[in-house]
Amino acid sequence: MRPWPRPSASASAAPDFTVKDVGGKTQSIHQYRGKIVVLDWVDPECSFDLKHYTSGNIPSMQKEAKKEGIVWLSINSAGKGLQGDFAGAQLAGWQHKVDWSADSYIRDQNGQIGKAYHATATPGMYVIKKDGTLAYAGAIDSIASNDVADIAKATNYVKQALAEIQAGKPVSVPVSRQYGCTIKYAG
């Protein structure tokens, strides 16, 4: 799978989708036009995701985003029955355990959304500006490890992109290489 094209001044629109989330609510990119959106590819069984979730790193980012009116959508593109394909009570238990607090959790079992974004690993992160263009695509931060101690040492690319967008500045690191667990696409 090829990486997402480098976002630029003439950035293309983020791929749209319309799906039902695990709560039955319809989610799409176009419904959030006028708001900043973070897409967070997640695998509840991935040690890299667990690093950022159990440490409180991603949950605190989700809570801060909500305070600032930023929409946060968690997407799981694992195929049915593959690693991390949590549903029902198993998903609810994981969300409670890690203090998950995004706006929505989407199961993308056919991989359509993940493939449209060229998502390759979890946690894969994407930031979409208010005008619907992709501003950032890549890793959550600059240190590709599953060691919690590295969080404090790393440059958090998502926080950096959000701060720069909100300040009206260009995103200084618009793309990075995703690291973590390979997304287990169906077929």
Write a structural description.
The protein has a five-stranded mixed sheet. The longest helix is centred in the N-terminal third of the chain and has 11 residues, at 57-67. The protein is built from five helices and nine strands; from the N terminus they run βββααβαβαβββαβ. It has 187 residues and is α/β, with parallel strands linked by helices. The model is unreliable at 1-10 (pLDDT under 50). It is globular. Strand 4, helix 3 (88-98) and strand 5 (104-107) form a beta-alpha-beta unit.
Concise structural overview:
The protein has five helices and nine strands; from the N terminus they run βββααβαβαβββαβ. It is 24% helix and 19% strand. Residues 1-10 have low confidence and may be disordered.
Largest β-sheet summary: 5 strands, mixed
Estimated helix fraction:
10-25%
Strand content: 15-25%
Distance between the termini: 14 Å
Question: Which regions contain 5 or more consecutive residues with pLDDT less than 50?
Answer: 1-10
Q: Tell me, what's the shape?
A: globular
Rg is 15 Å
User: Number of helix segments?
Assistant: 5
- The class by helix and strand makeup works out as alpha/beta
What is the tally of beta strands? 9
What's the overall average pLDDT, rounded? 93
Run of helices and strands: EEEHHEHEHEEEHE
Task: Please give the order of strands in the largest beta sheet.
Answer: 5-4-3-7-8
